[in-house]
Amino acid sequence: MTGLSVFARGGYATVYRATQESVGREVAVKVENRTLETDRDRRRFLREARAAGRMSSHPHVVDLFDAGVTELGHPYLIMELCDGSYAERMKDTPLTAAEARDVGFKIADALADAHALGVLHRDVKPANILFSRFGEPALADFGLAILAEWRDESMTLDTLTPAYAPPETFRQSPPAAAADVYALCATLYALMRGRPPRWRDDQAPSLLSLVDMFNEQVPDLPGCPENLMAVLRAGMANEEADRPSAIELRDLLIGLRLEPVPQVVVPPLGSPPVEPVYTSKAPPPPPPPDRILGSPFMAGEEQDAEQTVQHAVEAPWLGGGPPPVGPPADGVILDTPQRPPGARKFLLIVAAVALLVVALVGAGIAYNLNAGAGPDPTRSPSAPPTSAQSQAAGAVACPPAVTKLARCSPTVECFDADKRAVPCAGAHTWEEFAYGDLAKGSQVKTARDSPVDEVCSLKTLLLVDLRAANLKVDVLLPTPADQQAGPTVFRCLAGNPPSTFTGQQLRVSRTSPAPSGAGRRS
């Protein structure tokens, strides 16, 4: 390694530009400011680095070539040298909606791949999304939980503003995949606005005021289409269970058909910097790795005797396969069979093309075929039908990503503020976007009971109609007597009480036509 020169310096690490003489390429050498004090920490760092190396074969993850520890105990990473970060881009010219969408689905795909391998990122932000030499976005600092924990411990008013962190971070909840989704959506919002969500234009908030801001709705962005704002708001939902998974976020973004829109105005000169906001005297950078200890990263290190434990990633997982697993509480990364990089990249390309076709077809069905669907103003919906009645009435499949427990109707039913059925042509408070079956003898009492909580979620609502992100979700449950007599159904309602609607608001999304001659569910 020759030609070491400082490329960038931050509060946590110093990045050097260098030349890897063995292959004649320029690389970035990132050296952490802190040191690994114990052999256990060093083994753990190298184990996590190997897991991160497996992910670097993804086209939108920065390539990791090597990792190790310097003589003075500073962990280092040798990575692909990129041309800059989106943190620099957003200071100059914020992204258009179409650009943000493209960056979003590519990074979401990288996160989905990582979550499936049992690895969390924990620090998604504009500064960690880099420009590759080919102009593509690539996610850096992947999967190094031990480094993220260091940074969590130093999260103070003087050293860090977690501008892209979800509410549960402030409650010291265990890291989960849903936090990565929140951070990515907050990042995409910032890339279009030029500053993080909810931040005032004239000041940088304190850490305490940031916590209070979670009670505020994420404001609209000038020039940003409603459907993109709806996806971002869903990803930044305060409740983890209401956020889409990374793979769902990817599919939602791919399905957006965006028209060219004006660029968001760049914040005027003199505005508070984007990041970092809270400054303190940074520790002196570690010395450049004049002599790097022999790296076990490339050759492979003998597995230590510490036992690894499997933990589930705390995020919804829709689809036919088993759920992914997340890192254990101590950050140990699970040993996962390595896929050949060439095969993975080929499969990713094929999958991306297939997903794009499916998503566009699905979007056409949801937004074109059903745009004119409307209720029958002459009918008066009645009490929840039985399961048998709903099947006979021509219930249709919901959009593919919706939980299989949900059913969607070919028409929308409407309700007043007291959840009494009323014609959709008149004033009403609620509209049904999905429903689910309850077996005879069920004892569902609240909206948080299973399976109601899974079916009647903001995530389901957005998959049915992306424009509905600003609406609230409620549930119409059958009475205990109806449940005992069953089978029966519960209804998922969307509205914005006390406001009322006149005429149907939701677009019915379905994947197949209703059977010919089917009767009404009521």
What does this structure look like?
The protein has 522 residues and is of the alpha+beta class. The chain has 15 helices and 17 strands. It has helices spanning 39-55, 86-92, 97-116, 145-153, 167-170, 177-193, 207-213, 226-235, 246-254, 296-299, 341-369, 387-392, 452-455, 458-464, 480-485, and strands at residues 2-9, 13-20, 25-32, 64-69, 75-80, 84-85, 129-131, 137-139, 311-312, 325-326, 414-415, 421-422, 427-428, 430-438, 472-476, 488-495, 501-502. A hairpin with a 5-residue loop joins strand 4 and strand 5.
Summarize the structure.
The chain is α+β, with helices and mostly antiparallel strands and 522 residues long. The chain has helices spanning 39-55, 86-92, 97-116, 145-153, 167-170, 177-193, 207-213, 226-235, 246-254, 296-299, 341-369, 387-392, 452-455, 458-464, 480-485, and strands at 2-9, 13-20, 25-32, 64-69, 75-80, 84-85, 129-131, 137-139, 311-312, 325-326, 414-415, 421-422, 427-428, 430-438, 472-476, 488-495, 501-502.
